[in-house]
Amino acid sequence: MPLADDRIGRMGFLLMLRRRGITDQAVLRAMDEVPREYFVPPEYVSTAYADHAMPIACGQTISQPYVVAYMTEQLAVTPACRVLEIGTGSGYQAAVLSRLAREVVSVERYRTLAEAARIRFETLGFDNIEVVVGDGFGGVPERAPYDRIMVTAATETVPPALVEQLGEGGIMVLPLGPQRGSQSIVKLTRPAQGLDRTDLIAVRFVPLLPGRAQEL
Ligand code: SAH
């Protein structure tokens, strides 16, 4: 009964997210609309809705669903928003953002991952996501400014180019902290002057690495 099992998995999934404190209905709907089993490696399909991170190609990870929902909720995406994501990985986070935003530009340093994500978006009909192969430290200046920016790999300091590309009134959510050590999700908001910072939950992310990947 794969269909029934899948349904139970997905219903339990939303319940789990609610129990963990996700309350934004639009975010819950977006999480419900994106089939996570398309984004995990074949050997993880049967446990795709479990609340943990999983390995993907190129030594990277697809984030834990709760963290995806939490960061998405903190980003406060509205239907008019243009969103920049750094770290496409499997494409799962970009897919969730695409259900809430006008358009998503997502940057990945591995061509292999970027290509696989593009194919997933095409298969699923998610046509408002553009995947760019490049170094996310520099953002994508030719498409700036962005209303929202999400980084899904950890860095010790906020990349200055991303601050520059965040529009006025914009919000950026990113994991900050050392590669091996305590990292936390930080929310930056950009009023007319300066930048406001709020530290949120503790997390563990793979590092944001400089440059485009040489191999693959
Ligand atoms: N958002 C992804 C998970 C990302 S894991 C998902 O939903 O599956 C972090 C990703 O960031 C990895 O794929 C890694 O290759 C990528 N990455 C790391 N440093 C980067 C950089 N400087 N520019 C672009 N992508 C980067």
Give an account of the 3D structure:
- This protein has 216 residues and is of the alpha/beta class.
- The chain has a domain at 53-203: Rossmann fold, CATH 3.40.50.150.
- 30% of the residues lie in helices and 24% in strands.
- It contains six helices and nine strands, in the order ααββαβαβαββαβββ.
- It has helices at residues 2-19, 25-33, 65-75, 92-98, 111-124, 160-165; strands spanning 54-55, 61-62, 82-86, 103-108, 129-133, 146-151, 166-176, 183-189, 196-203.
- The strands form two sheets. A seven-stranded mixed β-sheet has the order 5-4-3-6-7-8-9. The chain has a two-stranded antiparallel ribbon with strand order 1-2.
- The protein is globular.
- The chain starts with a helix and ends in a 13-residue tail after the last strand.
- The structure holds S-adenosyl-L-homocysteine.
- The site of S-adenosyl-L-homocysteine has 24 residues, from β2, α4 and β4.
